[in-house]
Structure formats: C-alpha cells, structure tokens
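> call design_seq(struct)
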C-alpha cells in the first residue's frame, strides 16, 4: 500500500543530546528519530487517518523547510506530512502515553496520530478564531494516549502533520521528529497559582498526567521577604492520581511581601519537584468611598471637533456630576461625560463637582481648544495586541471595554479602547474604501457603543500595502481610509510600518524623508477630518521615528521594538532604549516605549497566560512607564484582570505623574552600579523620582542620598504607598528588579 521508506532509528539519546531539547525528552532511554516523511501540498482532513493511500505522495526531509527542497513557497497554503512509524514497546516505567516531538513549523500546525488530533500550535485560518502564528519557540511536544489514538505497539502507525504557511519559510524546519515514551515522573508537575481576588491565596497544585499513581511528601513554606520570617509551614503526605490534581490552598495577606516555596518528593523514585514564587502584594491604598477626581485637569480638542470626554472619578455609586460655567456648545451628562464642541480657539476653565451619598469633590478643569491641542496628556486605555494578537474580535473588544468600566479602570482615566492588527477585510470595496472582516460584524455599532459610554476608539493600519500581520494596509488609499475612520468615529490611529519598507527598497530611497513622506500624507488626510484622531506612529526597523515624528505632527511615536512579558525585554525597551530620549517628548508629542505587559497576555498564540514578570518587576514597569510620560495602553484581557493588576494600574498618585500637565519625560539622572535614578520635574515644583535596582541581587540604599537635587528635600513621599516617609524609613532594601517611587517637595 505505501512505500516504507522511513527508517525508525532507536538511538541512545544520552549520547547525542540535542541542544534544543527539553531535559525530559533528552533523558528518555530510547526514542525514535525520524528525518523523512511523505509529503503533499493541499488540504484534506481525511489525510490525518491511518488508512490513506499515500503511495503517490512525495518524499521530504523534515529537518528543512519545504521551500528549501524544491517545493514552491506556497504562501497562505496548506501541506501535509505523513509519517509511518513502528513504535515498539519501551523500557520506561509507563506505557500509556507517547510524546511526538516535532520541530518548528512555519507558521501553524496540527498533529494527528492514527487520525486523532493530539495537538497544534497557532490557529488555522479555517478555524473559528482565524489565523494566528504558532509559538516562536522551535519545538512542539504533543502527547498521545496509546489507547485513545489506537496505537498498535510493534506495528505500523501514522503521524500526520497539517502545516499552514502564511509567508516566508514553509513547514517543518530545523530538526527531526522524535517519538518516545516518557517516564511516569514526566507526567508529574508542580504548579503555583497565585490568585488575587478580594481574598488572596496561592494554590499549590500537583498534577499527574499519566496512569501511574504517585505518593509523596509535599512541603510548603511562606516567607516574609522583608523580615525573612517563616509565616507558615505545611508538611503533608499526598497521593496524586491521573485526573485528580492535589491542591493545597495557602491564603495570605496581600499587604505583606511574601515568597512561597513548595517541594514535592515522590517517595518511590525520590524525584524532587520544587517551585518558588514571589507572591502578589498590593501597595495602592484602598479607593475612598467619597468622590475623587483622578483625571488630569485638562483636555485638548481642535476647534469644532466633537468632544467626548469621560471624567475619571472614583467613589461609591450612584454619583452625580454637575458643571459650573461649562462653555457654550458643551454639556455634561449626569454620568460625567462631556459632549459637544467649541468653535473658537482658547482655554475654557470651569468647575465640575461630583457628589455621592458619602460626600463630594470639585475639580477646576480646562478645555484647551486649538489646532495643536490634541493629546495634552499621554493617552490611557487598552490595546488588543498583547493579548489577542491577530485573533482580536468585536466580542473580545467589548468584553475588555465593559470590564474597563466594571472594574473601575475608567474611573482612573483609562478611556481609549484600541484594536490593533487583524480587523481588516482582505478586499476593499469597489469605491476603494476599507472594510472590517467577519470578526467585526459592525464597526460603527462597536464605536457608537463605546462613545455612548464616554470611551474612545482606536484603530490600526500601516502606510504599506499590507500590515505586519499580512492584512490590508493603506498604501494608495490613505484618503479613503482617513475618510472611513471619520465616518466610523475613530479617535486614535496607530499607523505602523512593516511592508512600507518594500516601497523604500523599490525606490532605493533611504533617507529620513522616505519615512516622513508616508506619515505626512496620512497626517494631512487625518487632519482634514472634522474630528480629532490621535496620531500614533509605529515604525520600527531602525528608522528612529523620534527624530522626525514631530515633523509629521505625530501625537506619539514608538521608541522601541515590540515589548514582551519578560524582564530582559522590559529592561531593554524601558531602560536602555529610553536613555537620552526625553528631549524628543513634549506635550502632544509623546515617546511611546510600547504597551503594558501586566495581567493576562498571549499575542493570540493560544491560551492567554499570566505575565511572566514578577510582582516586583511589574511595579518597576509601571513606575518607569509613568515616569517616561508614555502612552499607558494596557495590553491584557481586562475581562480576566485580577485585583492585583487593577490596583497596580489604578493608583491615582502614580498615574498623576504620567498625566502631569508639565509633560516632561524623565531622564536617567544618576547611576550607581545596579541602582538607576530616573526623575522628572512636575507642574507643582516637586520632582518624581524612580529608584530602580536593575541588577540581579538585592541592594541596601539610602533614598535621601539618591535624590538628584542640590536643594534639601522637605517632604519625601512614597508614591505607591501614598505616605510621607519618616527619616528612619529612608534607608531600605530594594529587591532585584524592584524599585521605590518617590515624590520629593522642596
Ligand atoms: C508590529 C507592532 C505591534 C503590532 C503588530 C501588528 O509592527 O510593533 O505593536 O501592532 O505590528 O501586526
């Protein structure tokens, strides 16, 4: 029926360890190495089955992409691999599960054993959520139950891999396929789930994926990181079965900085599993029940443009807002949204009072009307990219927007709801206008829904023909796109770069002018619209947009490549790449080191995950971004945001520094080994100071000695904790990657 050309090599893996392999794969005593497969372009789900006549299929080397071995690139196309493999009985201590370890697949894949799907990476364009690229990490480990997939030991079985290529290299690349029986202990995992609800707890969970029962000792220690004291110690014998995880909940006080360590020792084989986690701690004081204005006292708009401005007021609901001397043409709804427009340029100052059953608060507020008044303070809100990537949909946007209101973030000034790449339809309409794809059934409906709630809407495009995610770009249709944005009611445009690089290549045009030109073109069409559209420039690729963004009337521009949720990236993007850039930032023209990576993120690559930054690193991230007068665009799914993250993003004194009306970005003002001091002057004459420990060990510091001023400080305030520091509190420890945030008055 088929050519049996695949040689199943049983190798002693210990002798030829592959650098890319995970330890548990490298440790198995015998595994099957497969470097050749049968191959066919096209897509047919029946090709997953065991009994398919594949005698006419071609042969392929799985260690190289298909386009490197005579096959066409086949962009936006599918191809299948079929591997016939004889799996013999193994010498490991379990025979219920095999692992199919496949190398990097460019760009998305699904893997089947004898017709049963056992895993996949990314998402296929044919799926409900649409296309998303697979994990960038090269390897995939898919597990198959021997019974569930009908594996016959000692006989022929079929592994089928469905691959989708979006562009560039196609299919499996970089390594062989490996098949092996993992050890029973490989099915065990120890996880710590730090859960931040109104009551904080850390769940210690032991999971056993395989059928062999594990008995052993679980030990848990909760340690106060500031004093070193052991606050809780638990020792327990447990028995862990497949499908029944062992869970031990450890409640803790979120006002204390704790570390939790859990150790599980399997009694039979003596294998030890250990996990340590810094637990979430909350520094922001509770929100008072009385009304409090949390927004900057200013908003900018062009003459005649529609005003939609939601006052950010925290406090118990119901609450009523009323204005006194509100300028003509503008009204304040009871919910606290300013609507209307003002014809003539000028500053319009009035008072707004918010009142509830517990009390009231009044703010002096100025609407600045003028052609150059957009973006008086850095925009605050949400963007879909860091969580949903290209799988963004109308439903997901609404869920985050609703949560922005329900969880109180809108009461702290987060008001933009921005979609990133992935909304565009492939084809333009006959008149050249752009359309949203099927994931956005009604763009106008979505935007109206947001505006009714006083929120604003942002969209994404690129000056090139296609976006970075390979969707429709604006090249040649800038005028139509700007008009469409106005028709829909768009308030923010993130204008990226990506394929515009092709135009520069085509024209062999490499100066700054070649960057400025496409941005200026869109700027002219945007500014012709009778509404304000915040213009955020996103080019990368060494084009140094901060040097010329101002000439395109950009309201903000990226000053770093894409952020990721790990310390190395946050350190590079936030610290190293922002040094010396404060001179390019000014009111209405902000530097943007990219969006926030707190909460649950994932870029549309499968399940969302909790940010990999530790709580200390998250405090550092937010402290630095507020000092940098950066756009504050939350990158996680707000619907799934926990209490810790809400408190991290909703500290009114921290956010007030970001929104300070002087609009001066912080500089690196002092560096002493691992300790970096970033500071900025504030409108009230004080300075904001971030004291960061960017090293890999804790440091004792004297905060007073680090204040970058010749004047003597009268009040040194801890901004996160919102309390003035006494002399004896100024000598303190800053944990690695942690910080202290000060406001210093003279
Ligand atoms: C990148 C950009 C990201 C995101 C992505 C969309 O160039 O930096 O923030 O917008 O494109 O494809």
């Amino acid at each position: 029926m088929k050519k049996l050309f695949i040689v199943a090599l049983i190798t002693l893996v210990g002798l030829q360890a592959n650098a890319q392999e995970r330890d548990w794969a490298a440790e198995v005593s015998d595994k099957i190495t497969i470097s050749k497969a049968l191959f066919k372009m096209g897509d047919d789900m029946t090709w997953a089955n065991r009994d398919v006549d594949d005698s006419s299929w071609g042969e392929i080397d799985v260690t190289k992409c298909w386009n490197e071995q005579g096959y066409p690139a086949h962009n936006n196309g599918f191809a299948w691999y079929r591997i016939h493999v004889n799996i013999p009985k193994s010498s490991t201590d379990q025979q219920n599960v095999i692992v199919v370890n496949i190398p990097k697949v460019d760009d998305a894949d699904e893997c089947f054993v004898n017709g049963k799907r056992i895993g996949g990476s990314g998402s296929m364009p044919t799926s409900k959520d649409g296309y998303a690229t697979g994990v960038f990490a090269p390897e995939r480990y898919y597990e198959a139950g021997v019974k569930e997939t009908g594996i016959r030991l000692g006989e022929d079985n079929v592994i089928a891999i469905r691959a989708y290529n979006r562009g560039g290299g196609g299919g499996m690349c970089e390594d062989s396929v490996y098949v092996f029986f993992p050890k029973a202990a490989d099915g065990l995992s120890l996880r710590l789930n730090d859960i931040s609800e109104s009551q904080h707890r850390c769940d210690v969970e032991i999971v056993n994926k395989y059928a062999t029962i594990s008995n052993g000792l679980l030990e848990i220690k909760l340690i106060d990181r500031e004093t070193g004291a052991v606050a809780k110690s638990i020792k327990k014998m447990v028995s862990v079965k497949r499908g029944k995880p062992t869970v031990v909940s450890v409640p803790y006080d979120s006002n204390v900085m704790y570390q939790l360590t859990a150790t599980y020792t399997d009694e039979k084989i003596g294998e030890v599993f250990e996990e340590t986690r810094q637990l979430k701690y909350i520094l922001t004081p509770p929100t008072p029940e009385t009304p409090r204005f949390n927004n900057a006292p200013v908003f900018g708009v062009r003459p005649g443009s529609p005003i939609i401005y939601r006052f950010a007021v925290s406090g118990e609901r119901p609450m009523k807002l009323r204005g006194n001397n509100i300028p003509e043409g503008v009204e304040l709804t009871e919910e606290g949204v300013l609507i209307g427009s003002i014809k003539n340029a000028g500053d319009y100052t009035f008072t707004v009072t918010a009142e509830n059953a517990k009390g009231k608060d009044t703010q002096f507020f100025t609407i600045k009307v003028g052609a150059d008044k957009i973006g008086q303070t850095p925009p605050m809100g949400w963007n879909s990219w860091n969580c949903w990537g290209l799988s963004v949909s109308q439903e997901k946007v609404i869920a985050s927007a609703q949560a922005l209101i329900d969880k109180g973030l809108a009461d702290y000034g987060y008001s933009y709801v921005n979609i990133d790449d992935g909304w565009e339809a492939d084809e333009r309409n006959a008149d050249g206008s752009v359309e949203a794809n099927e994931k956005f059934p009604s763009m106008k409906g979505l935007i109206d829904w947001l505006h009714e709630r006083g929120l604003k809407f942002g969209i994404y495009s690129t000056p090139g023909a296609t976006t970075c995610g390979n969707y429709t770009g604006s090249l040649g249709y800038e005028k139509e796109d700007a008009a469409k944005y106005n028709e829909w009611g768009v308030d923010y445009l993130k204008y990226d770069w990506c394929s515009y690089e092709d135009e520069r290549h085509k024209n062999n045009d490499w100066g700054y002018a070649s960057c400025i030109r496409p941005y200026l073109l869109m700027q002219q069409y945007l500014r012709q619209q009778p509404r304000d559209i915040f213009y955020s420039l996103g080019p990368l690729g060494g084009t140094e947009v901060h040097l010329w963004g101002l000439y395109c009337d950009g309201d903000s521009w990226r000053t770093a490549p894409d952020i990721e949720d790990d310390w190395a990236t946050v350190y590079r993007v936030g610290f190293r790449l922002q040094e010396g850039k404060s001179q390019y930032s000014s009111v209405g023209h902000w530097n943007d080191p990219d969006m926030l990576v707190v909460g649950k993120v994932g870029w549309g690559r499968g399940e969302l995950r909790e940010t990999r930054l530790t709580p200390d690193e998250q405090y550092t991230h937010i402290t630095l971004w507020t000092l940098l007068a950066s756009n504050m665009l939350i990158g996680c799914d707000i619907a799934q945001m926990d209490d810790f993250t809400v408190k991290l993003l909703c500290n009114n004194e921290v956010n007030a520094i970001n929104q300070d009306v002087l609009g001066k970005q912080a500089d690196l003002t002092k560096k002493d080994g691992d300790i970096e001091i970033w500071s900025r002057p504030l409108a009230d004459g004080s300075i904001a100071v971030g004291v960061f420990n960017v090293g890999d060990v804790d440091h004792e510091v004297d905060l007073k000695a680090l204040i970058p001023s010749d004047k003597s400080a009268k009040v040194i305030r801890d901004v996160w904790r919102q309390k003035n520091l006494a002399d004896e509190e100024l000598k303190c420890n800053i944990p690695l990657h942690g910080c202290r945030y000060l406001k210093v008055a003279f």
